[in-house]
Design brief:
InterPro entries: DUF6922
Protein name: DUF6922 domain-containing protein
Radius of gyration: 15 Å
Helix content: 40-55%
Structural class: mainly alpha
Number of helices: 5
């Protein structure tokens, strides 16, 4: 019998400094992973989550499921995924006219 191998994306643990990297639920916590990489990652990390989750799941998550991204991360998302429109992103609509704390 073959032991089950855990498939995880090839991402550096530094992106998840506030989590136990070995215990991250990559499937259940996909919104956190996607938001974190869009906010703090570069093209290589974006390519890796696209490989791991699929482009459609990422676009749907950014557009409809992630509740907050700072302005620079919204701009990053638009740069990485040009098919997104700012006006359709829940994280943009949710805070468009609302100030938020910078921390």
């Amino acid at each position: 019998m073959k032991p089950l191998t855990k498939h995880i994306p090839n991402l550096h643990p530094k992106f998840f400094w506030d989590f136990r990297f070995d215990s991250i639920d990559w499937d259940g916590g996909y919104k956190m992973v996607i938001a974190r990489i869009v906010e703090r990652g570069g093209q290589d990390q974006i390519d890796e989550i696209v490989r791991f989750y699929g482009r459609e799941k990422i676009i749907t998550s950014i557009r409809d499921e992630i509740f907050f991204l700072p302005n620079y991360a919204i701009e990053n998302a638009l740069k990485f995924f040009p098919e997104l429109k700012k006006e359709e992103m829940y994280c943009y609509l949710n805070r468009k006219d609302k100030p938020y704390h910078w921390i």
